[in-house]
Amino acid sequence: MTERKKIFIWTLFDFGNTSFSIVVVTFLYAVYFKKVVAGGEAIGDFYWSLGTSIAMIVTAIISPLLGAIADYSAGKKRFLLFFTLLCVVATSGLYFVGPGNVFWGLVIFIIANIGFEAGLVFYDSFLPEITSPKNFGRVSGYGFGMGYVGSLVTLGIVYPFIQMEMIKETFPIAALFFLIFSLPIFIFLKDNRKPKASFLTSLRIGFNRVQSTITHLPKYKNLALFLLAYFFYIEGVNTVIFFSGNYASTTLGFSDTELLLFFITVQTTAIVGSILLGILADSIGQKRTIIITLIMWLITIVLAYLVEEKNTFYIVGLIAGAAMGASQSTSRSLMSHLTPIDKKTEFFGFYSFFGKSSAIIGPLVFGLISYYSGNQRLAIISIAFFFLVGMIILSFVKENESIVSET
User: Fold this and answer.
1) 65-92 pLDDT, tens per residue?
2) Which of 106, 270, 304, 406 is disulfide-compatible with 51, CB 3.0–4.6 A?
3) What domains, with CATH codes, occur in the chain?
């Protein structure tokens, strides 16, 4: 199979899985949970932040272990299939969540989100296997770009249901979309190695490898520094993703249709940002490109705090979309550059650990500030702290430092 075909098949998974991200995490279920399930109460923000944080805690804990197991047993596809099906089934189950079902609405969402986030550990680790290091930036950008195209297609599919106020029906539709477009990666892409051990043996070795990696992490000082920077700035990105729909709906009074148009705007610029800045990253470097996106994020946060009019908020969406696509895709490609090739899945597990554990604090901070102050604007401006700290730490990362020299 040619490299181009492998890349296309790989990006189809991104095309499919963003149906969950846009319908459940960012837009329809997030707003549905606040308005319908939580009855529109301010504490709904806290409940939502609690659900996202719990899902991320679980994912953060299991990701390094799963990555280490998959590295040894070459079971990336098996694990990816398991977590994909977990997400698909749970997402379909959201259809049965109604008014007042806060507990089950959170439990099912947590299960679906764990499936989605944990699966990304194995999906991301395919990147070094389908292209060469010099193309990591653009290929990662292609993946995110294809994902945002998938979001646009999904929004187009659910639009008639939104008009008919059939919001619950969009949840199983998103699940089916994810399932269909995830199939090619399981059918056509292969792990580089065959499994060498049973699951229990792999589990034991996985624990040992995680312990060994933690013990020897000081040997990978540059990589550890990047992961720390990533921890902070992706905190801001995740918080914006989790609460942008609720913020636009509650603070600015967006209707479901207006939210649809807003997210179409965001997804469109995200496609452009992830692809163009991904190509730029291969020219000027991933580190510089990430810093550019963090500056864009800071501008976005300030504007979101100041904006009073709905129309002006679309400008915020334009900048946020471009920054979102580029910051995520370029971070993934920089991680690929800095990671020892023989530990790629294990270290992508730690990459996921830092990314998911960071999504614990930000949403909780937003939810608590919003609940106790009754003002989402104060909550949104607090996110700037995470972008600033991440950018400062990132400035000390040596992008071109040899991986060999760290081992």
Assistant:
1) 777 776 666 667 888 999 999 999 999 9
2) 106
3) 3-406 (1.20.1250.20)
Torsion of CA 111, 124, 145, 363, to 10 degrees: 40
Residues 6+ apart with CB under 8 A from 360: 53, 56, 57, 60
Per 3-state DSSP, what percentage of the chain is helix, strand, and coil (rounded to 5)?
Answer: 85, 0, 15
> Is this model's pTM higher than 0.90 or not?
no
Percent of the chain exceeding pLDDT 90 equals: 40
Counting other chains too, the contacts that 4-10 makes at CB distance below 8 Å and 24 or more residues apart are: 5/188, 6/130, 6/131, 6/189, 7/130, 7/131, 7/139, 7/142, 9/184, 9/185, 9/188, 9/189, 10/123, 10/126, 10/127, 10/130, 10/143, 10/185, 10/189
Here the tokens at position 159 are 């639009």
pLDDT digits (tens, 9 = 90+) for 128-186: 788 887 787 678 778 877 988 899 999 999 999 999 999 999 999 999 999 999 999 99
Q: How is 262-319 classified by DSSP, letter by letter?
A: HHHHHHHHHHHHHHHHHHHHHHH-HHHHHHHHHHHHHHHHHHHHH--SHHHHHHHHHH
DSSP, residue by residue, 147-195: HHHHHHHHHHHHHHHHHTT--TTHHHHHHHHHHHHHHHHHHH---SS--
The pLDDT of residue 71 is: 66
Q: Of how many residues is the chain composed?
A: 407
- Smallest Cα–Cα separation from 386: which of 288, 290, 297? 297
Averaged pLDDT for residues 208-218: 72
Residue 239: its H or E element: helix 221-250
Give residue-wise pLDDT tens across range 289-343: 999 999 999 999 999 999 888 888 888 888 988 888 788 778 878 888 888 777 7
Do the Cβ atoms of 220 and 281 come closer than 8 Å?
no
